[in-house]
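User: Continuing from earlier, I have the next pair ready.

Assistant: Great, send them over.

User: Here they are, in order.

Assistant: Folding the first of the pair now:
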Amino acid sequence: MAKLHFFGGTRIVSGSCYLLEAEDKKILIDCGLFQGPREFEKKNYEPFPFNPKEIDSVIITHSHLDHIGRLPMLVKAGFGGKIFATPPTIEFTHLMLEDSKKVLAEKARHADAIPLFYEGEIDELMKFFVPVKYHEKVNISDNISFEFYEAGHILGSAFVKITLSEGKNKKTIVFSGDLGSSTVSILRPLEKINQADYVLIESAYGDRLHERGSQAKDIIEDTIEETITNGGTLMIPSFAMERAQQLIYHLNELVENKRIPAVPVFIDSPLTNEITRVYEKFTNYFNDEVQDLIKKGDDIFKFPGLKFTPTIKESKEINNVHPPKVIIAGSGMSQGGRILHHEMRYLSDSRNTLLMVTYQAQGTLGRRIFEGAKEIEILDQKIPVKAKIKSIGSYSAHADQKGLIDWLGAIRKPVKKIFVVQGEEKPALALAQKIRDEMGTEAEMPKMGQVVEL
């Protein structure tokens, strides 16, 4: 009898971590950081609720910190097996962990705690990775295998189908990881499968529908034109991975088609600079339209006015550039990074605009701004919020409710049970109810530490 343990991503977005026990094997799917309010982040310092030395294999869906962030601690605690991931995910994991260790060290200092991991531990972790391509069958044992499929979320992201063979009978469990939205993506679309016995499905946007992709470009165009007219500065807090590359691609398209003038656009994020170089290395993961542009000679991550500012000196020099100008910087939820310095400087001026293109989790500064805070505090300084606040929902790298239901609907054989994970309680509850109503399938929102027999 196979058992499935839920050790994260239950009624919250972050901390994805699922343990599958089958035969004598223990397989971990993702090992992510808990992010958001302090009570969530405290869990990162707790011991694992299982013995890392007993884990045979780890399967990673993608390289966001809420799916990989506790891997160094797993190795430090004695894990010695293989970690399977797609080639881009492996490259990104190193970059993301290197970048996050500074932020985590600062948080540990404020909390009078030991940093979660150090630089040498990241290097040690990388030795355990094994690259796996999409659709490549990997045998963990004679009776347990898995395959990756395109999730369309970020470059190299995958959902996982694990097959357990019991004599002539086969049992399949699908872990969605994070599923992508096709509205504005430069990646190949989310794949669908037609058979699964059990499904774990993410629910970050399980209670809403995205705008059309064309609306996103229209909003950017209108916002930049408004910024130019006002002589202001447009700030866009962005994740360094996927969101920033989507923005650069669409700005390139708008400039080349003369829909906006070539105003100065600063990518003020060292990590975005490094990640964009990896994107340029794996262009075979892009969708057909983008690959056709590249074949025709279009450098999709370059256009007049665009400047990457990886060094501190270059970042500070942005202040000397007269508006209008556009600044894209991390972090996407305004929890750290260079965007904080720009928000301190520009949020108090009504000529300026803050355009949100990312999910804003509970407890983050970005969420407070999004919800209409009139005053915020950054680095112990009170900042009045007078700039215009706008948002674009269709830039989400997560599928919306319709996308999630469509993906599940492609499974022809009736699913025995669906577990709704990786979403706050409200969207998870809405998606679970939608699944019951439209598909007639049992849908459950697991609790932390829950064990289910499959």
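And the other member of the pair:
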Amino acid sequence: MKKYYLFSLISFALYSCTHSNQEEFTLDSKDLTSTIHRINEQSEECNLPNQRGCAQLEASYPTIALGGEKPNQSLLKSLNDSIYALFVQPFIDFIPEESIKKNATIPQLKAAFFKKHTIDQKKNKERIGYQLINDVTAPFISDVFASIQQKQMTYAGGAHPDTEILYFTLDLKTGKTLHPYSWMKDTNAVKEQLLKVLKKQVNMDETMDLEDYGFFISDREFLLTSNILIEEDSVSFAYNSYELAPYSFGIFDLKLPKSAVQFNH
């Protein structure tokens, strides 16, 4: 599965834009709402006693809207288009033969998924299960940006499913990705704190080296990820399977208090 490591940032400045009558307009997070759209469908094989060849599709994504008496919904069109493009990407990766477009509709995505399942079931003597879980959420929205979290799991046969967590921070006004890594005042200090959190998560002694515990890297080789999520009171750093250690170690989603991660802005 392709990985799309886009970075996040935090900024405390307010964005302004202009109505058609030139009246100044400022986004306020109090006026923003999030609506979740869900897909939860399965193939007929899932009703069989042994469920062999069962295909399951679970997916969701948010749309951000403005409240108020005269909401300017066009303000957030770029943001919602960007969120939807992130939502569609796992379908593009999982079903490359369908040449799915970034703006493909929900019916088109569902049809492509179950079409692939039907074709592959006919090709394989051993009926395999299919699963695609793709949940996109907006856990934090400020006056400037939306923090987006995407959790994915795909399975089309094999020893185990592919899972990953992806974090994005999108500009509310443009939908473009913002980059927090370069905004950190002291990346070395953050790295040292994350290393302690990582060792605590796997019940390691702080004096023990990662490599001696079975990680792919040593303490000295540990680096900050660019897969970062900024929330109201915390900052999360996600390391997906095989980035630091074998698959059996799982995904490491390391969280620090926001006060411990100082930004230049």
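Worth noting for the second one:
Residues 182-260 form a domain with the Actin; Chain A, domain 4 fold (CATH 3.90.640.20). The chain has two domains: 29-178, 182-260.
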